[in-house]
C-alpha cells in the first residue's frame, strides 16, 4: 500500500526577540491509508506544531521553514493561502482539544457541522444534514435525529466532542488530525468518546494523526507511535513493540509517569490522630432558595468528612459529582446551606466575613489552571510577595529572602523570580501556584485538579513535590481529582463522590481490590491500561442493565440507580440505601454487602498497576 501522508525533514522556527529559534528539527514519518499515527511527548515537545503543519499552518510567531508535508497529491508547504483554504475542512480536518471553545454558542449544532462542507460545495444542505445525522448515529450520540437542533450548551462535554468529530468527518477527508481530543474529559466519558472515535475511524478507513501526552490512550488508538522531545523524534515504532520494549530512556520515563501509583507512595507516619478539619451534615448548592431555605440546585448532600493533621485525603468523581464544590465550601467561597464545619477545634464560618485572618492564612487553595490563577502582569516575585506582606508584614531583605526560600521549596531556580507567568512552562506555573499557597504557611491546602491540565511527566513531578512537601512541612491536603491512580499515589484515604453524595470512603489499600461501590468499580475500569485491546474489553458499561420498575417518590433513592449494573428491582428503585462497612474496612452507600459485590467483581475488576486516567 502506498503512502498517503509523507512528512520529511520538517522544520519549524519560532520568531523571538533574539531572532529565529528552531523548535521542530528535521521530523520525518509517513502513513498509509487507514493508519493512525500518534505524536506523543510532554508539553513543548512540538507535537501540536507538527500536527498543525499537516494543515499547512503555523501558529502566530512561527514559520514553516523547511521540509516536505505531502497529503495525498498535495504538497502542503508549497500551496498558496487560497489553495490551503480550499483544503482545510475539506481534504484535511482538525478536531481540537476543547470543543466548548470551538463551537459558536449562538448557532445550532447541525448548522455548524454542515457549514464547512457547504462552503466547500460538497453537497446541498438537505443531503449534508442527512449525512450529519448518520455520523451522529455512528458516533453513538443520543437521539441522532434531533440532537443537531440543540445548542452547544445543551449537550455534555463528551457529546460535544463527538459532534466536533462529525464536523471533521463530514467531508470524507484524506486526513484527520485529533489534537488531545479527550484530555479535558472525565475518564468515564473519555472511554465512550474513544470507542466512538475508534469505531468510526476504522469503519470508514480514515487516516488520522492523534496528538496526546497519554501513552495509555494512544495505545488504544494508534498503529504506530512517534515519540517527541524538544522538537526531535526520539523513537518511532509500531505500538505493540514500543509499549513492550521501549528503546529510548525518555520513552521509558513516559511509561513510568503514566502510572504514578507504582513509583510514588504517600509518606508514612505523617498523619496525627487529632482532627484538623471536620465536616458534618454538609449540604450546599447554587441558585435561588425555596421556602425551606434549600437552593434550587443541590450539589452536595449530607457530607461527613474529617481531615486529620498531616493527612492527605483524595476526593474523586466525575464532573458534576460535587468534589470542587466541596473545596469551595471549605475555602469559604460558597456558603453551605446545612451542616457544620470545624477547623482545629473552632467553628469555621460559612462565609469569608465570618472567618478570622488566621483561618484565612491556615487554609489555602491551589487551583486547577495556573494560567487563570496567576496575574499575567505580575512577576513571580510580586505574586509571592503579596501573601508574605499580608500575613507576615515582610519587606525589604527579609521579603526577598523568603521569596528565594519558597522558590527553593518548590524546586524552581531563583532566577525565575523576575519572570512573568507567560515566560514559564505549565509545570513551572503550577509550582508558582503552589509556592503562593505555601507562602502563608498553611495547615491545610485544597488542591483542585492540580495535575489534570499537565502532561504525565510534569504531573508526576508535581505529585512527587507534593509528597515531599507534606513530609517536610506536615501540611494536610484535600486533594481533588478524577484520577484514582493519581490519588492512590499521594493520599492516605480516598473519598468517592457521585452526584453530590459520598458513595465510598476508605484507606488507599481498600481501593486496591474488590469489593467496591458499583460507581467506584466503573471509575476504576474507565482508567486506560498500557496495552492494546483494552478499549474493546474494558468493562465500563453493561450492554443491558437489569430492568427495574417505576421509581418510588423517595428523594434519598440511590443517585447511581440509572447507571448501576447491579441494581435490584423492588429494592434499589423503592428504598433509599444505607451506609455499610465493607470487609476491607471501607464504607459505601449501597444496598449490597461485601459478598454480593465481590460476587460480581471478583476476578474481573481490580486496579491494574499501569493504568492512568
Explain what you see:
This protein has 613 residues and is of the alpha/beta class. Helices cover 33% and strands 24% of the residues. It is built from 22 helices and 22 strands. Strands 16-17-18-13-19-20-22-21 form an 8-stranded mixed β-sheet, with helices on both faces. Strands 6-7-8-3-9-10 form a 6-stranded mixed β-sheet, sandwiched between helices. A 4-stranded antiparallel β-sheet has the order 2-1-4-5, covered by helices on one side. Helix 4 crosses helix 5. The longest helix is centred in the C-terminal third of the chain and has 18 residues. The protein starts with a strand and ends in a 12-residue tail after the last helix. The relative contact order is 0.10.
Kindly, what is the distance between the CA atoms of the first and last residues, rounded to a whole number of angstroms?
A: 35 Å
What kind of oligomer do you see?
A: single chain
For the secondary structure, the number of strands is 22
**Tally of individual helices:** 22
Shape: globular
Averaged pLDDT: 92
Beta-strand proportion: 15-25%
Main sheet record: 8 strands, mixed
Percent range of helical residues: 25-40%
* Class computed from helices, strands and strand pairing: alpha/beta
Q: State the low-pLDDT regions, or none.
A: 605-613
The radius of gyration is: 25 Å
For the largest beta sheet, what order do the strands appear in spatially? 16-17-18-13-19-20-22-21
